Amino acid sequence: MKRIFTLLFLAATIIINAQERCSTTAHTQKLMDINPEYAKARAKVNSQTEQWIKDHPNHNEKTIITIPVVVHVVWNTTAENIPDSRVLEQIEILNNDYRRTNIDAINTPNVWQGIAADCEIEFCLATADPNGNPTTGIDRVQTTETSFGMSGDPVMSAASGGANPWDQDNYLNIWVCDLGSGLLGYASPPSGWPNPNDGVVIGYKYFGLSGSNGGAYRYGRTATHEVGHWLNLDHVWGGGWGSCGDDNVSDTPTQEQENYSCPGYPHNPNSCSTTNPDGDMFMNYMDYTNDACMNLFTNGQKTRMLAAINQYRPNMLNHDLCAGTVGVSETLNQKRELIKIVDVLGRTTTNQPTNTPLFYIYNDGSVEKKIIVE
Ligand code: ZN
Ligand code: CA
């Protein structure tokens, strides 16, 4: 009996080691090889970003940007057809991580607490589809494909068994599918070129709170990381591997290479010929550590994301795709009160049936879409 248990444990360990955190670097390279226009546009992004930051010294003024999301659940097996509750969990995780309301924010080492950012970016499941019809923001597509690779983005096209994107200028498209080969996810960084393969792809085992199937990546931070790429963040160690590269963010320490598992603090101090007693910021969402180890974006990363939205994804700033609220809303320092609850047809309701989207309207003008799931 004891022998069998040991063998099973070894098998599980091997599977976890075969996982690949993110292939955005390889995916971006491939996109640039296929589309020279994308390569040209991407080459300008860093200087355009620097210029935008210089031109907008007040970019940090108090506004919330709400990004409308469509989640394409492309499924072959029932396990891949993840329930709405998992999608809602993932949206909540994104909101907590980007607003720094994540409960593990206290785990950020003291030395970096002062630069840990409330990015003031929120996410909603879109309430209107590209034709203006009401939607849950969840697009389910059954497929005969048993898994999707990264190359050529087959999951992004109905013709190859996936789901077509919704207008990428207006929505953050997230595809959830079986990515095969242990890959957790990938994304396309922005530029001035309209990329028909724009969006984020996440393996279904790593989306939302996925339980033991997700292993060390079960707390939904693959999406936090990949949406960071979609908003123009680089890995904290920069471009290459083991090369002490630059992530174009000044408040993240220069780092030799990616980190896995969960190191102790301080980790790898004074690397890359620097004087840096604090070592790597391995708990940054843009490293490769376990989900439970990650807990911050920095102010510098926030600035880079705001520059990306303003320059390359401006439709996120002002839209009508989140329950009728505009994308940018003022932050009010008052406690809000619920005024009424309405259904998708705008009728006021008092009962709260399950699996039905309802809109909660508050006295500060904010609206939340909620679905009670059994
Ligand atoms: Zn990555
Ligand atoms: Ca840096």
Write the layout of secondary structure elements.
Blueprint: H1 2-17, H2 24-34, H3 36-55, E1 63-75, H4 84-99, H5 110-113, E2 121-125, E3 138-142, E4 172-177, E5 185-187, E6 200-203, H6 221-230, H7 299-312, E7 328-330, E8 338-342, E9 357-362, E10 367-371
Parallel strand pairs: 1-2, 1-3, 1-4, 4-6
Antiparallel strand pairs: 1-7, 5-6, 8-9, 9-10
The protein binds zinc ion and calcium ion.
**Helical percentage:** 10-25%
Structural class: alpha/beta
Taking the sheet with the most strands, its summary is: 7 strands, mixed
Secondary-structure element series: HHHEHHEEEEEHHEEEE
What does this structure look like?
This protein is α/β, with parallel strands linked by helices. It has 7 helices and 10 strands. Helix content is 24%, strand content 15%. Strands 1, 2, 3, 4, 5, 6 and 7 form a 7-stranded mixed β-sheet that branches. The protein has a 3-stranded antiparallel β-sheet with strand order 8-9-10, with no helix packed on it. A hairpin with a 4-residue loop joins strand 9 and strand 10. The radius of gyration is 21 Å and the shape is globular. The two termini are 39 Å apart. The N terminus is likely disordered. It binds zinc ion and calcium ion (CA). The site of zinc ion (ZN) has 5 residues, from helix 6. The site of calcium ion has 4 residues, from loops.
